[in-house]
Amino acid sequence: MANPSIVIIPGSFSPPSMYTTxxxxxxxxxxxxxxxxxxxxxxxxxxPAATMxxxxxxxxxxxxxxxxxxxxxxxxxxxxGGIVANQxxxxxxxxxxxxxxxxxxxxxxxxxxxxVPALGCSTSDTTSDIRFDGISVQxxxxxxxxxxxxxxxxxxxxxxxxxxxxxxxxxHSALSFAGKLSYAAYEHVxxxxxxxxxxxxxxxxxxxxxxxxxxxxxxxxxxxRSINAGHFPPITRPEELAGLIxxxxxxx
Length: 252
Prior knowledge:
Protein name: AB hydrolase-1 domain-containing protein
Strand content: 15-25%
Domain AB hydrolase-1: 6-242
Shape: globular
Number of helices: 10
Number of domains: 1
Low-confidence stretches: none
InterPro entries: AB_hydrolase_1 (IPR000073), AB_hydrolase_fold (IPR029058), Sec-Metab_Biosynth_Hydrolase (IPR052897)
Mean pLDDT: 98
Largest sheet: 6 strands, parallel
Organism: Aspergillus wentii DTO 134E9
CATH class: Alpha Beta
Pfam families: Abhydrolase_6
Radius of gyration: 17 Å
CATH architecture: 3-Layer(aba) Sandwich
CATH superfamily: Alpha/Beta hydrolase fold, catalytic domain
């Protein structure tokens, strides 16, 4: 049986280029891998800022096209990408499509240190107890301070090296964090969650709480794995992370 295709949904402030090395390892392991672009992280003023719903609509179209080719799809989401992964999968699960005689569809969602809200909640709601340093709001857009972002997102690297990576961050829509989840894919499809043990952005306790939420709402056990990394293992541990993704997919 053919391997499923992988669609990577980046985190906030993150261009696809920050996932290139990680994606190449997945491709080397035999998985067609598409790194998507968040509308919320690719527009700049004076263009109107995108919303979480815009992100979900974009990725819905990407995944739907793959499913229409008869392909099974695994969504791999990182950080903010967790809410987008849930929202975009409505109507795209393999079981949903099979009911209408259609092939392909989403067979698993893998969350990498993700924000996974309850139904009716937003990214801001879900992270209200967490302090994010270095974010500046300019109208409907946000920017990151490179040094503060380095400390938060690349805490497992020396600061000078971390700043080199954090400087690649894009502007991000401030509107996106207010978008409320109206479809929880995690209640209806197999889920894996990769805990980043050294995460200084979304602490392991927060990640564990997301896993508990998923298990409570779905009634199913989450396939849980961990990596000794900070918030951005697609950059700091790409090969190891790709191996964990492959292990999770084998469970499909």
